[in-house]
Amino acid sequence: MGRTLQNTMINLGLQNACDEAVYQLGLDMEELEEIEEDAGLGNGGLGRLAACFLDSMATLGLAAYGYGIRYEYGIFNQKIRDGWQVEEADDWLRHGNPWEKARPEYMLPVHFYGRVEHSASGAKWIDTQVVLALPYDTPVPGYMNNTVNTMRLWSARAPNDFNLRDFNVGDYIQAVLDRNLAENISRVLYPNDNFFEGKELRLKQEYFVVAATLQDIIRRFKASKFGSTDSVRTVFDSFPDQVAIQLNDTHPAMAIPELMRIFVDIEKLPWDKAWDITKRTFAYTNHTVLPEALERWPVDLVEKLLPRHLQIIYEINQRHLDHIASLFPNDVDRLRRMSLIEEGDTKRINMAHLCIVGSHAVNGVAKIHSEIVKTQVFEDFAELEPEKFQNKTNGITPRRWLLLCNPGLAELIAEKIGEDYVRDLSQLTKLHKFVDDDLFIREVAKVKQENKVKFALYLEKEYKVKINPSSMFDVHVKRIHEYKRQLMNCLHIITMYNRIRRDPAKLFVPRTVIIGGKAAPGYHMAKMIIKLINAVAQVVNNDPVVGSKLKVIFLENYRVSLAEKVIPATDLSEQISTAGTEASGTGNMKFMLNGALTIGTMDGANVEMAEEAGEENLFIFGMRVEDVTELDRRGYNAQLYYDRLPELKQAVDQIKSGFFSPKDPNLFNDVVNMLFHHDRFKVFADYEAYVKCQEKVSELYLNSKAWTKMVIRNIAAAGKFSSDRTIKEYARDIWHVEPSDLKIPPPNEPRDAGQDKTPNGTAA
Region (Disordered): which ranges (predicted)? Predict the structure, then answer.
């Protein structure tokens, strides 16, 4: 979520009043804002997307709730020591959190372990361990519409009789100390992005948030007029018409068997009725196609922790496979491929398959990704129910990612096209008529220059590095992962360095290359990549021949509040994942909206950005998905590129020989070995096209006016990438609710008693 103060002032229309009031007290608002800790309760794009969605849902007047875990420790703070990433605990609650309100009156029990007893009256889950879920509510204000929604985060608490009620021999002290075991559930965020780690505590977290949330939803449903018993209809007949639950990836997939357990075991609905309601309630968003990221929980772990849920999953699977067998008799391989249970060394539950079978809608997050989901990853399921599969291209909130972080540009745009674009970003197309307006071109360039100077000052103050604000700011910020190919950027830096040294007199367009992002603590290769970037920076930044022509900076502890500073200052946005690997990306959109140009592959939302702005207004290079597929068919041989490209060979040899690690020449052996022998993401295959494309970038940067005109065309084409548009599509195509742009009267005005203050419809 990042910080809340400035976002709240903007959405409430109070920023100027607050700035003035604080100034009158002899304080500086910007200084105050810097004191607030980021709420870092997610890992990367998926978590930040949820935050943008909450802002848009409130702004569109949807009765929506965001549910999650109130981690005591969020994503680790990253320190760089001697070029290595070192993790520190993110004790973000140390000074308290003024935005949250504990709601002990809504505390709920969550059960674990135990066993299942079957009788004539049905199944009973008994002898369980109980953990209490204490909700904390954070307000989510819409933009200037007097709507405030709720983000409800659950914290784990041990019940007061924990370890004291059962055959306890009287070690009272130990029993109280053991309360920590239960409360550890909400202690810390698992820091993996795009990687599945099958740990018991993680599964506990996933079930904890799901069980508490579903109880909360059902309590609210029963308390409403819709849940009241009708003499004809079952209490839950209207449930899917009043409740929509969107599964943000497979992490909350246990919600499907949990809702079935509630309906069948507790509410005593017949299976078929319960299953119909469940399917119509859930929809699933897929966020990645990387096989190592797909959740596959071991059956024996689920059996131990959630024995009744395993039985329900088996029953769901049996009925699912019976259906497939009736449609495709004797096709045992299809049954194996489509089963929720994977046989092998250890039997596992494929959570994506569970989500597809248990949902009425499945979507990818960019056109190209949704196509891959349909035709490759889940092709058997899409063949069965093509109407279930949709696309919902991701978006970003223009409140945080333009108004808040780039007020200079936001104001400049408002001067030209009015202020309405903040709620309807498609209006940015009106900027096309100013693309040849010399004054506007100069003003856009001036705002960018001011942002660069401000960021350069920040870098000098925080990191004691001096950079040249007139150089091109070439920025690559995102989680560190092989598929995102920070290594390819690194090879380009080395290539530029070698070119400067080879011919120091030759004209070179000065660059400051900024790379930032966190590596999962257990991801060895990602940590080596960070060390390599820092080792290269050490050499480049201290070579007198290079001077101020080329500087390399690794941006420590990349997070939302730092993104808000670096993105408005960026000239060139690096979006260079191997085609077919980045589901969408959202950083790409933030840079586009903030006046950076994109160098990128035809991957994720880059494809649609090129479609909106015109491919000639992005620097697109490299293999397309078809080329990658063809190269896989032929077999990727890294050695071929190394032998054919002298500059690539030189760069790789320098890494290999210890040119960047003279004290330990073998330091980067693992990296080099990977690049030659098991590079799934084909860095060498795109290197030549990337370097050539970067030459075109430098050439255009020399022509400031032509560059800025391209920037304006990009900003004018960024309207599609508002999360408001994304949420409208979810609302209409999946949740079946109508967004309302009605402004609720402010609390100081009396309401019209005759008017229903909430429009009828689903709560998402």
Answer: 738-764
Q: Is residue 526 in a domain?
A: yes
Taking 90 as the threshold, does the pLDDT of residue 31 lie above it?
A: yes
Q: List pLDDT tens digits, range 145-161.
A: 999 999 999 999 999 98
Task: Spell out where 71-114 has E strands.
Answer: 77-81, 84-88, 101-102, 108-112
In angstroms, the CA 471 to CA 473 distance is: 6
pLDDT classification of 168: cutoffs 50, 70, 90: low
Catalytic-residue membership of 726 = no
Output the CA–CA distances (angstroms, integers) from residue 335 to 322, 331, 381, in the order listed. 9, 7, 11
In the set 152, 348, 478, 720, the catalytic residue is: 478
Q: What is the b/e burial string over 725-751, where b = at least 16 CB atoms within 10 angstroms of the residue's CB?
A: bbbbbbbeebbebebbeeebeeeeeee
Q: How far apart are CA 145 and CA 62, in angstroms?
A: 12
Q: What does the alpha-carbon distance between residue 742 and residue 492 come to, in Å, rounded to a whole number?
A: 51
Catalytic residue among 320, 476, 479, 709: 479
Helix (H) or strand (E) holding 380: helix 379-384
Buried b (16+ CB within 10 A) or exposed e, 361-372: bbbbbbbbbbbb
Q: Where are the alpha helices (DSSP H) in 74-139?
A: none
Residue 479 designated active-site: yes
The one catalytic residue in 393, 581, 586, 726 is 586
The secondary structure element, H or E, covering residue 282 is strand 282-285
DSSP H or E stretch at residue 297: strand 296-298
- Per-residue model confidence (pLDDT) at position 489: 98
Domain-embedded: residue 600? yes
Per-residue pLDDT, averaged over 629-641, amounts to 98
Binned at pLDDT 50, 70 and 90, residue 465 comes out as confident
Phi and psi torsions of 565, nearest 5°: -90, -45
Against a cut of 0.85, is the pTM above it? Answer: yes
At 442, list the tokens.
């100069």
Nearest to 265 by CA among 70, 114, 425: 114
To the query of whether residue 251 is one of the catalytic residues in this protein, the response is no
> What element of type H or E holds 357?
helix 351-357
d(CA 717, CA 635): 38
Q: What is the CATH number of the domain that holds 455?
A: 3.40.50.2000
- Exposure of 489 in the CB half-sphere (CA atoms within 13 A): 37
- Tally of domains within the chain: 1
| Catalytic option among 3, 70, 287, 551 | 287
Q: Is 705 a catalytic residue?
A: no
| Catalytic residue status for 103 | no
Q: Would the pLDDT of 229 be above 80? A: no
Count Cβ atoms below 10 Å from residue 266 Cβ, excluding itself.
Answer: 12
Exposure of 685 by Cβ count < 10 A (0-12 exposed, 13-18 middle, 19+ buried)? buried
Answer yes or no: is 257 within a domain.
Answer: no
Q: Is 261 a catalytic residue?
A: no
Q: How many Å apart are CA 724 and CA 323, to the nearest integer?
A: 39
Which element (helix H / strand E) includes 573? strand 572-575
- Cβ count near 583 (within 10 Å): 28
Candidates 590, 656, 713, 720; catalytic one: 590
Q: How far apart are the first and last CA of the chain?
A: 19
The alpha-helical segments, DSSP class H, found in 127-189 are: 172-177, 179-183
Candidates 142, 91, 163, 83; CA nearest to 533 is 83
Q: What is the DSSP string of 708-745?
A: HHHHHHHHHTGGGGBHHHHHHHHIIIII------PPPP
Instruction: Give tens-digit pLDDT for 6-25.
Output: 999 999 999 999 999 999 99
pLDDT at 167: 64
Range(s) of the domain holding residue 509: 407-719
Burial label, 438 (beta-carbon count in 10 A; 0-12, 13-18, 19+):
exposed
